[in-house]
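Weekly structure sync, notes
Attendees: PL (lead), two postdocs, one rotation student
Agenda item 3: pending single-chain targets
PL asked that the sequence for the first pending target be pasted directly into the notes so everyone works from the same version. It is reproduced below exactly as submitted, 110 residues in total.
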Amino acid sequence: MLAPDQVLLLRAALLPAEPGIAAWREWRATADLDTIDRGSARLLPLLWFNLLANGIDDPWMPRFKGIYRHTWFGNQVWMRRVRHIEATLATQGVSPIALKGLALANAYYE
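Predicted structure, written out during the meeting:
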């Protein structure tokens, strides 16, 4: 079960235009980035991207951008490793199936 602040953050990260902006404002009013839980912290790159798309200017935006860039870099390193593993498995006739984050990243994220 998600806590109310987690629901607000999820809405702020995913909903377009006014519903997302309203959720952002409500979440921002009580949020503390220094004590945020791990699950919520994983949404911050997506939040930054959505806030940017909605023209939000906030003092936290540079911090979110840094988190986004750090996550992007880590994902690139991870994807390179996965491609290497896939190539190694392919030489043995094994076709892996991507699940969860990898499948979503390849199918839906830019």
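Discussion points:
- Residues 82 and 102 are 9 Å apart (CA to CA).
- The helical segments are 4-14, 17-30, 38-41, 44-53, 61-91, 100-107.
Action: rotation student to compare against the earlier draft before next sync.
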